[in-house]
Amino acid sequence: xxxxxxxDHSAFTLIELLTLIAIVGAxxxxxxxxxxxxxxxxxxxRCAGNVRQLGIGLQAFLAGNHSYPLLVNxxxxxxxxxxxxxxxxVPGNPTNRIPFSQWSDAGVWICPxxxxxxxxxxxxxxxxxxxxxxxxxxxxxxRSLGLGGHFTLGESRLPIPAxxxxxxxxxxxxxxxxxxxxxxxxxxxxxxxxxxxxxGLTNYSGSTKRAYARHQGAANVxxxxxxxxxxxxxxxxxxxxxxxxxRWNRDHLPHREKLSP
Length: 261
Known about the structure:
It is built from six helices and eleven strands. It is an alpha+beta fold. The chain has one domain. The chain is elongated and about 85 Å long.
């Protein structure tokens, strides 16, 4: 008698194979999501460190000048040029200085989660960080509530005189430098060298979406006393409470009247 053939079930059935593929796909998705969360967290941490270093440069400028950098000061440039002279000498040669076009798109000036760094030769790209030069004000206001001088771009004169250190009512509650966003009334513009809350903005090329994706809906900001926080973009640019508004202005008043025309 011939031996009975054994029915071998060692191979995968189609259903088992599809189930296995689904499980592997789900695990891969979870691992990929965890990877991107970790990457975003690392970028956020590195950006916070950059902002802290810029705050140290600002403190050095204050110690030497007893006033805050002007937003614009030809021919030296703007606030970034002022900080460069206090923070970024050529290593090993403190009397020499790195050219503006070389250091402003490298090192602590670059947020790893921002867009392509600004290129001074092509005049394209993004500034990672902005200066709270104007505070909370309209684009047509003459008087500035920020740190970049007593006048805004709405004034024909240069923003002179500079804001004295003594004019900032509460340094620990006055924002100085942060991720370069200009926002208000539901729109955000990114890649700015000014940190500014105003109105009448547009969502250009998906800028609002990019801004919220940069640090998962938050921004890194260093205050006038040197400490760093990561407030949400909603708190910075949409919240109308006194706690949200006073942090923009050197007199520590909310100036709610400047939220709209």
